[in-house]
Amino acid sequence: MKRLLLAGGMMLMAQGVMASDDDIVKVKASGDVAATMDALQAAVEGAGATVFARVDHAGGAAKVDLELADSQLLIFGNPKLGTPAMQDDALAGLFLPLKVLVYEDAEGQVWLAYEDPKEMLDDLSGINLEAEYIKKMTGALGKLTGKAAGG
Questions:
Q1: Fewest beta carbons less than 10 Å away: which of 53, 54, 85, 100?
Q2: Segment 110-130, tens digit of pLDDT
Q3: Coiled coil where (predicted)?
């Protein structure tokens, strides 16, 4: 059993993915923030989803003479996935569309980060946590961020 747990942990580390205690999934990227975000946006658009906004946090900070490590947020969605969640509970609209943050940490490592959809929606009474749209959102986020990470 210990070997199985160790092997599973090593596989996750090799893929550069980790989940933290606060339900944020982080994927280690091989490029810089701009290139990783470009790859993420291309993957999202290539999958047929809609990009609603690309927010440059560091650029915004610079406009008010403040410093912030390179950080960009992509806001995107697919009505085929999000609408059923909002039909089940209108408050799902507080969490949708989906968001992925690409940022550089204090050591210079670039990460993609997003909130696990199941955890994101788990406090809403109308949401069935086994709903197909949650599984699809989770799978899509994993595939899109994995592709953009460029491992």
A1: 53
A2: 999 999 999 999 999 999 999
A3: none
